[in-house]
Specification:
The chain is of the alpha/beta class. The protein folds into four domains: 144 residues, Rossmann fold, CATH 3.40.50; 113 residues, Putative Large Serine Recombinase, Chain B, Domain 2 (Hect, E3 ligase catalytic domain fold, Alpha-Beta Complex), CATH 3.90.1750.20; 158 residues, no CATH class; 84 residues, no CATH class. 45% of the residues lie in helices and 18% in strands. The protein is built from 20 helices and 20 strands. The strands form six sheets. Strands 1, 2, 3, 4, 5 and 6 form a six-stranded mixed sheet that branches. Helix 11 packs antiparallel against helix 12. The radius of gyration is 36 Å and the shape is flat. About 1% of the residues have low confidence.
Length: 543
């Protein structure tokens, strides 16, 4: 009887558990040894050498034990490879084809002890090809799953590893600030804002002895600690991680780590970098019009409204946009504010002096005197003509559906009134103004101040019909009966009855004429309403 020399091959993708007394490789070999012993009557003889690859993926053939094993196959020293499962040998169909060709060339084969086939038969080869196709599919799906997990984690603002950026230290799935390195980052940004040329920043950084991060790898080799080159400086200046954000491909998300650079300052640096790039391409940039409310403007979700601009017919149009509309650009169902900047700034500039004029004596000043009132009124008159000083008074502006909340800065106002902070009533420095909206395309214009409500009688009548028809449906009326009684169509009934599911506060707003201008019967009947009341409120806030 011809002897069949058998070699057992074992593999494990990760190193986890390999230090145990009895690990996965041992379990695989034990099962293979028992199978070879059961085939003794067929002339199978087990070779004593071990061929184990621990902590190596099946997606590659560059495995030491496998290469030694295949070299012996090529030399004709082994007749059969025995594995626990075929994916222990390889997970790649192309790699499997290469292995089979080498086995065929030496009239060798391999067998899986947990899968009833071997490559010595045509049926075994067919079955093996099918199973290996699924093994490769599983590997590719796993890769996609890992890629999706990384994308989802970054969307939540988590840091997913890699080289730790200068200015930070790893802290689990986020980053914590390294105070000494963070000062280097701040200095580089300050130098760029001062010189606006990376070449000059490089020269100044070298004079200040600023150096890159020193890193020590697993082998104990230390790298880094060098002077910055221009490419490295540009990378630092354009890296959103320093503004507290996480980048994934072409999108950025709010990170869970602290920012080293104020986000608005970082945005300003990006504007300068883009302008400089345009100039280098032979397109000298025009003077950039400032956005004085930047960093002070927030919406009802707490999201900052970021300055943005576009060009139309050669004219530069400025906006304040909810940051999520930029951060999640291209995603569906993302709502937020898009406000034309000049009219908003103009109305805020008028509203603040008016409020202070009306309330300086009655509530803003504590124990007002003739002298303190006179000083304050004179200061208010002056700032009405100087918007730069006026906007410096703003601490924060919050925009919510139907109202805008303005909080004045306590310290700046005390300086303006030439008074100490204790003579100001801090509670009176925050005030609320109502507003109406006017929708034009994707942008919203605010009309700040008291506006006489205008009731939409068509919308109110349709609401009444919605409640009536919905009540008839609940009472057991069929569509045909309602159509006959009301003289309408099935389509009309289906459209109108959806209005019966509006949130109660939205219904009250409509009945009082306080609904957004864009909230009309035509709009409601054209678009499908979300069933969740909170989603409805968020949607109508953008009209």
């Amino acid at each position: 009887m011809r002897k069949i020399r058998c070699a057992i091959y074992t593999r494990k993708s990760t190193e986890e558990g390999l230090d145990q007394e009895f690990n996965s490789l041992d379990a695989q070999r034990e099962a293979c040894e028992a199978y070879v012993a059961s085939q003794k009557h067929e002339g199978w003889v087990l070779l004593p050498e071990y061929y184990d690859d621990g902590g190596i993926s099946g997606g590659t053939l560059k495995r030491p034990a496998l290469q030694r094993l295949m070299a012996l196959i090529d030399d004709g020293d082994i007749d059969q490879i025995v594995v626990y499962k075929i994916d222990r040998l390889t997970r790649s169909l192309p790699d499997f084809a290469k292995l089979v060709d080498r086995l065929d060339a030496k009239e060798a084969s391999f067998v899986s002890v947990t899968q009833a086939f071997n490559t010595a038969t045509s049926m075994g080869r067919l079955t093996l090809n099918v199973l290996l196709s699924f093994a490769q599919f599983e590997r590719e799906v796993t890769t996609e799953r890992i890629r999706d997990k990384i994308a989802a984690s970054k969307k939540k603002g988590l840091w997913m590893g890699g080289n730790i950026p200068l200015g930070y230290e790893a802290d689990g799935r986020t980053l914590k600030i390294n105070a000494e390195e963070a000062q280097t980052i701040k200095t580089l940004y300050d130098l760029y804002l001062k010189h606006k040329l990376i070449r000059l920043v490089k020269e100044e950084a070298a004079k200040l002895e600023l150096r890159s991060k020193r890193r020590t790898n697993a082998k104990g080799i230390t790298r880094g600690g060098n002077y910055f080159d221009r490419g490295h400086i540009y990378h630092i200046l354009s890296n959103p991680i320093y503004a507290g954000r996480i980048r994934h491909k072409d999108k950025t998300y709010e990170g869970q780590h602290a920012a080293i650079i104020d986000p608005d300052l970082w945005d300003n640096v990006q504007t300068l970098l883009v302008a400089k790039a345009s100039y280098d391409r032979g397109q000298p940039p025009k003077a950039v019009e400032p956005s004085p409310l930047a960093g002070r403007l927030y919406d009802e979700t707490g999201d900052r409204l970021t300055p943005s601009h576009t060009k139309k017919n050669g004219k530069r149009l400025r906006y304040y946009i909810s940051h999520r509309l930029i951060k999640q650009s291209g995603e569906k169902d993302i709502t937020g504010w898009r406000l034309p900047a000049p009219p908003l700034e103009e109305q805020i500039a008028k509203a603040i002096p008016k409020y202070m004029n009306d309330n300086v004596a009655s509530s803003i000043l504590i124990a007002p005197t003739t002298e303190s009132i006179s000083k304050a009124m004179s200061a208010i008159a002056n700032i009405a003509c100087d918007k730069n000083v006026l906007f410096d008074l703003i601490g924060k502006i919050s925009i919510e559906p139907g109202r805008i909340i303005i909080a004045l800065d306590h310290k700046h106002l005390a300086v303006l009134f030439e008074a100490t902070k204790d003579v100001l009533n801090e509670e009176a420095l925050t005030f609320t103004l109502p507003f109406q909206t006017r929708k034009r395309g994707v942008e919203t214009k605010l009309i700040i101040g008291h506006v006489e409500p205008a009731k939409d009688m068509t919308l109110i009548r349709n609401l009444a019909k919605a409640y009536k028809w919905f009540g008839m449906i609940k009472a057991g009326y069929t569509f045909d009966e309602i159509i006959k009684q009301e003289g309408t169509s099935r389509r009309r009934i289906q459209q109108i009855t959806e209005l019966a599911f509006l949130a109660p506060d939205i219904v009250q707003m409509i009945s009082e004429g306080r609904q957004p201008t864009g909230l009309t019967s035509e709009w409601l009947l054209r678009y499908k309403l979300p069933s969740d009341w909170q989603d409805q409120r968020a949607l109508f806030a953008t009209l």
